[in-house]
Structure prediction request, 371 residues.
Amino acid sequence: MRRRVLRLFYLVAGIIFLAAVIFAASGGTGAASQGGPDSTSGIDQGGGNVSSNTITLLSNSDSQQWTRERMLAAQPYPLESLNNDHEFSLQLNPSKGDPAFISGSPPTAVQFDISVQQDVNSLVQTTTSGYDYPAPFVRYQNFDSYQVYPYSTVGVLFFKQYGIDYRCSAVSIGNSAIWTAGHCIHKGDNSEDGWSTNIRFAPAYKNGSTPFGVWTTSHITTKGSWYQFGDLRYDMAGAVLNEWNNQTISEVVGSLGFAYNQDSGLHWLNFGYPSSEPFDGKTQQLCVASFAYADTSMPAPSPIAMGCDMTPGSSGGPWILSFSGQVGQTNYLNGNNSYRYSFHPREMFSPYFGDAAKSLYDALLAGSSSN
Prediction:
């Protein structure tokens, strides 16, 4: 009898353990239950992906509409400004995965096609070993048409977080998905109340006009390590948008490609809508710069910096690698505006885009506005 009880006990315990493993592997929803920042085996996945679709109930009610006046009055979401001790390295940490690229796409009626290119030797990039602060950069206002690809993919993200109307920057990445910073989607305070709500995306926003409309949200996703710990190494997130007139956001404005596990030749165009002085948030601003240094005060994957003086409101803006304008299929998303150090106002950090970023990218593109 005792042996039978023990066998039954071990059987039940094994089933419970297996169910827990399967749930963790699926990413889960709601509260992050995937463990700490470095709890995954093998390549760090940033605590898995954490999603919420409860915002749908708060996204489309008439009382929550974003008027032009409300958009203009929205506050820029504060850039994280660190004051603690820091360590910088002029060299990138070696990537744990193979570098790869996924093609972008201009506006098209055809569903976004994902193709991974493992041959990175065909791309020509400026290789740099880094710069001391202040790293060189050039910043200018977009002088091209906002409605021309790939400028059309970048826009303003409006949302409410803890009762306050905010704005960030975001970009179309394919299918119904957009990409932004983690702190624009969730506070990073390990709370269900920390999710942003009433989210809208206005691509090609300029001087209060929205030529491609204002898109509502189906559900949102961020990294578990950002959700639970506010871990800046994983300050990345995205949203799946509802279709408009039976078209996805990428069919209307196009989408950026995606590059990850890069370890050399990093030269970017950084897009954003900074709205704190001296900017007003009405126009796209671009910083052109190369890799400056890695923030090795944080464990690998250490965030990376470029020279840039954009202010709050630019959070989530894309770092575009191998910018080729409307004639190319490169235009790879390879970073997003995240934070800076208070004593370095002419720098901008992004999470390093490794396998954790690719996992989030896959989850967003696999999402559907019908889910």
